[in-house]
Amino acid sequence: MPVYEYEHIGKPCRRGQVFEVRQSIHDKLLTHCPDCKKPVKKLISRVGISTPKTNRELRDLGFTKLVKRDEGVYENVTARDGESPVMIRGKPETIPNLKKTIRD
Ligand SMILES: [Zn+2]
Q: Ligand 1 centre and the CA of 6: distance in Å?
């Protein structure tokens, strides 16, 4: 189901000023926030900009993603060749090699 973005016209509630709602294309567009019942407007969808979802897509786009595995230990799930698969606090040799990532 597609995700639609809505913006509170007035003050935001706990959902935030802009929030996303997953709706069927058959559902009516919201005119009011499901939480605070205040008026909202639908934002123009960002056509053509898709959010990378997999670690591989992120890596191919040049992102480095670190996932916390333990106190001070981060797995580099987008590790490239020669990069350490984990980053450990206090061990600079495990920091992702950005010089290698940034080539142009
Ligand atoms: Zn609201």
A: 10
